Amino acid sequence: MTDTSFPLHLGQQSGLPASPEEAQLDYVPNPRVGSLYLVRFAAPEFTSLCPVTGQPDFAHLVIDYAPGETIVESKSLKLFLGSFRNHGAFHEDVTVGIGQRLFNEMKPLWLRIGGYWYPRGGIPIDVFWQSDAPPAGLWVPDQGVPGYRGRG
């Protein structure tokens, strides 16, 4: 976890990390500590590589979380997600791995991720992970991504 006193990427020129392992996520103090609210990030053009064929895989990721003491800085999250472009892994590993890394480092009250993957071998694979049941009183809207329907 990066030191929250000085974000590594915010206001700086930062290149795309070579791998998810090399990517450093920045966390900054939650400006509304004590307030129960939901933050949503959507990455509708997420890409990674098939670990077997090396061909690109595409997904619409939706990350929802209820902040604790910190929030993830969005530029560092974009760079982290972009680092998967040259990373080979199965959909399950990518989706759950992103969710678990954010949860373990940021320590939010609650986090969930939906990975809505476009078809591989003719079958769309959707992967979902959450840390636990959402806190009582947290408004958790539907992620709003319809199941894959093909053209039309």
Automatic annotation (TrEMBL):
Keyword Metal-binding: no
GO molecular function: preQ1 synthase activity
E.C. number: 1.7.1.13
Cell compartment(s), UniProt: Cytoplasm
Protein name (Swiss-Prot/TrEMBL): NADPH-dependent 7-cyano-7-deazaguanine reductase
Cited Gene3D superfamilies: 3.30.1130.10
Known catalytic reactions: 7-aminomethyl-7-carbaguanine + 2 NADP(+) = 7-cyano-7-carbaguanine + 2 NADPH + 3 H(+)
Biased composition (Polar residues): 1-16
The UniProt record lists the keyword NADP: yes
Record key words, sorted: Cytoplasm, NADP, Oxidoreductase, Plasmid, Queuosine biosynthesis
Residue ranges, annotated region (Disordered): 1-21
Species name: Novosphingobium resinovorum
Similarity comment text for this entry: Belongs to the GTP cyclohydrolase I family. QueF type 1 subfamily.
One GO cellular component term noted in the UniProt record for this chain: cytoplasm
HAMAP family on file: QueF_type1
